[in-house]
Design a protein that fits this description.
The complex is a heterodimer of chains A (about 280) and B (about 425). Chain A has about 280 residues and is mainly alpha-helical. Chain A has eleven helices and two strands; from the N terminus they run H-H-H-H-E-E-H-H-H-H-H-H-H. Chain B contains twelve helices and twelve strands. In chain B, helix 2 packs across helix 10, helix 2 runs parallel beside helix 11 and helix 5 packs across helix 6. Classes of the chains: A mainly alpha (about 280), B alpha/beta (about 425). At the A-B interface, helix 1, helix 9 and helix 10 of A face helix 2, strand 7, helix 7, helix 8 and helix 9 of B.
């Protein structure tokens, strides 16, 4: 029974990993561009949720949408003002630009919100469900289900809609897409918006159960990179499976071997898998 | 030499004299370099301690006769150093021990500070004090509790705070007391973050428990940056100890309390070893689920009008919050350091060191509930001690030992059950 509890907890955690990693993989898949500020987008999503709850008295639906929208706008702005320009520069400039952006966002957050840890006040999402003796905290359950649904929706958007086809066309061959009447800049701005928006909503969902401070992005940023690499760069379903797998392995190894060993187990398996399958679970070789 | 070139030469000579003239001693300053985590996971504690040090410097540098017996409060600056003022230089080591080491070196070699203080995380104090020892600059460890910081044969390191073994001994005395009152303490659990601080305190508690024949049902080391602690809580739930002692930093202690509620696990008593449980973010985040959780503290605001209450008012005016135990212990160490700087009568490192070694502050000269400040040959304050406090509603109240208690101890804790 306890084991079932551990597995459920691991999967709920993994679903959140999946959601905040899908944005990162999207940008990589679209533009071969690594966004080091992704963890900071998650962090900003958490603060947007806090502001909506504290100032406007909003519930989970309100702060979820608010965080998604605010971060979508930020993503588009970041693309148009920064990324579009550094894309023309050398590879190193591209890498360092988002690294600089990450520091800028983190320290701006320190300045505005102070270094104190904050938590979301008790909102309507609280309590624990008891299903056949397995306890499921409602906030994590809602976050987990929403995370899987949104990751799935993002996947459908990319594979089943015209917008998705356009996005993928730009990723495939920018010039050819331009010849077909697609505006690459618009599409890539949209990709950044979607990526940042999904990070924002992930942050809002996580804010319900985790205390955080402006430096939380570091922790989540690293996890996101591991999830994306394991899942295969550019694959949204890959990120989902990888997120669930990592959450599950972390929970099980923390329970069996002790919490200080959980990351050793996760990263050992991670390195082993990359050795066997460098493109990740679902990446294209 | 023409007349004008002679004048030019004279002017240059005069300017050179002016530039190289030492600043007048009377208006001198004594520079204190302070290393704290001002960003990163422990930033909240670092920022709170920074504010406390600034208030303490304000008290020393200006006249505050209303603060009673507190050394240097009534006078302006350091009287024995011609009224010299304290000048604080803060640096941010982000909780990173190697950065703490670099910054300590920089403070000594570039900023030419006279003494050092810091560094919150025991792991950072450990590396930074080694630098001070190498350069022969006195280092006051404000509140880091790991045993290994003193006791390395260092001559330049002093520590004002109680340490891991003091805390462990306090918990054991408390358990004895509870058993006498008929409370059941058949076994305890120790949950510790796995850097120097948590490991050292947990080791001390395990050793003390063994000596006192209290079985440790389980010891769980974990990393303070964990984003999920369900596995740990489930392990506790399986073992059913009567008391769980958490040696945790901020986000992890909040996460533990919330996860315990989510997984419906409430032990008869939880004791937090200060730190995370004393962080300003702790109470607002978990007051509704952690009612009755205990914590240690040598700080008590005291009655209105008392010296401690007045100090708290000054701190509150600056930060909007009450002074917490961590910052207060740093502040007390700062006052002990200032007292030694004054008695040294000089900024020479040797003289400051000797003055520190001769420190003998009485309980009535302190803002903390210690029995005094007096350093042994390892630099450890041998008169430091602590109280136990309990979370009631939205504040901690002093509940043990009985002679100092302001409120009645609730056992078992209520947690989220009202």
């Amino acid at each position: 029974m306890l084991l079932a509890q551990v597995i459920v907890g691991g999967l709920l955690l993994g679903a959140i990993y999946a959601l905040f990693s899908s944005g990162l993989t999207l940008i990589w898949g679209m533009m071969n561009f690594i966004n080091f500020a992704h963890g900071e987008f998650v962090m900003l999503g958490m603060y947007v949720a806090l502001l909506v709850v504290v100032w406007l008295g909003g519930g989970p639906e309100a702060f979820g949408f608010a965080a998604a929208f605010a971060l979508f706008v930020l993503g588009v702005v970041v693309y148009l003002s920064l990324i579009r320009h550094v894309m023309r520069g050398p590879m190193l400039a591209q890498i360092l630009s988002t690294f600089g952006l990450a520091l800028l966002l983190r320290y701006t957050a320190f300045w505005i919100f102070s270094a104190n840890f904050v938590s979301l006040p008790q909102v309507s999402l609280s309590g624990t469900l008891n299903i056949a003796g397995i306890l499921m905290p409602v906030p994590q359950l809602v976050a987990g289900v929403a995370a899987i649904a949104l990751t799935f929706a993002l996947h459908l958007l990319l594979t089943r809609t015209t917008v998705g086809s356009k996005l993928l066309a730009v990723a495939e061959d920018r010039n050819a897409a331009m010849l077909m009447g697609i505006r690459p800049d618009r599409m890539q701005a949209l990709a950044w918006g979607l990526a940042a928006g999904s990070a924002g909503i992930a942050g809002a969902l996580m804010a319900v159960s985790y205390p955080w401070s402006p430096s939380v992005g570091e922790t989540f940023g690293l996890t996101a990179f591991v999830v994306v690499t394991l899942g295969g760069f550019g694959s949204v379903p890959g990120a989902m499976y990888a997120g669930l797998i990592i959450g599950l392995i972390q929970a099980l190894s923390a329970y069996w071997f002790g919490p200080i060993y959980k990351d050793i187990v996760v990263y050992a398996l991670f390195v082993a898998l990359l050795w066997l399958r460098p493109q990740g679970l679902m990446g294209k070789a | 030499m023409t007349k004008s070139s002679a004048m030019m030469a004279a002017a240059i000579a005069a300017a050179a004299v002016l530039i190289s003239a030492p600043p007048a001693q009377a208006a001198g300053t004594v520079k204190i370099g302070i290393l704290w985590p001002l960003t990163g996971n422990a930033a909240a504690a670092g920022q709170a301690s920074k504010a406390a040090a600034e208030v303490a410097a304000e008290i020393v540098n200006n006249k505050h006769p209303e603060l009673g017996n507190l050394p240097l409060a009534a006078t302006e600056g350091l009287p024995n150093q011609g009224g010299a003022k304290l000048e604080l230089t803060f640096v941010d080591h982000q909780g990173n021990p190697s950065l703490a080491q670099q910054l300590a070196t920089r403070l000594i070699t570039q900023d030419a500070v006279h003494v050092l203080m810091g560094a919150y995380q025991s792991s950072c104090s450990f590396t930074a004090t080694a630098v001070a020892e190498r350069y022969g600059i006195p280092f006051m460890v404000g509140e880091s509790a790991a045993l290994n910081i003193t006791g390395r044969g260092f001559k330049w390191v002093f520590r004002g705070t109680p340490i891991a073994s003091d805390y462990a001994a306090t918990y054991m005395r408390f358990f004895e007391d509870m058993k006498k009152q008929g409370k059941k303490i058949a076994s305890i659990a120790v949950v510790n973050e796995n850097t120097d601080y948590g490991t050292s305190v947990a080791d001390s508690i395990e050793a003390a428990a063994k000596k006192n024949n209290i079985p440790v049902a389980i010891r769980i080391p974990y990393s303070a940056s964990s984003t999920d602690v369900s596995a740990q809580v489930l392990q506790l739930k399986e073992k059913q100890p009567d008391v769980v002692i958490f040696i945790s930093y901020t986000s992890d202690s909040i996460l533990y309390m919330k996860t315990m509620k989510n997984l419906d696990y409430l032990p008869p008593m939880v004791i937090g070893d200060d730190t995370g449980f004393s962080d300003p973010s702790f109470i607002p985040a978990v007051a509704d689920v952690a009612q009755g959780a205990m914590n240690r503290s040598a700080w008590d605001i005291g009655k209105p009008g008392s010296t401690t209450s007045k100090i708290n008012e000054m701190y509150k005016a600056k930060t909007g919050r009450d002074l917490d135990d961590t910052s207060a212990r740093n502040m007390q160490s700062f006052f002990a350091l200032a007292d030694a700087l004054n008695r040294a009568g000089s900024t020479e490192p040797e003289k400051i060191r000797d003055a520190l070694a001769k420190t003998d502050l009485k309980p009535e000269q302190l803002m903390m509930g210690y029995n005094g400040v007096k350093f042994d040959e390892t630099g450890q304050n041998i008169l430091a001690s602590t109280y136990l406090i309990q979370l009631k509603d939205k504040a901690y109240q002093l509940v043990w030992p009985d002679k100092a208690a302001a409120a009645k101890l609730d056992w078992p804790m209520k947690g989220w059950k009202q």
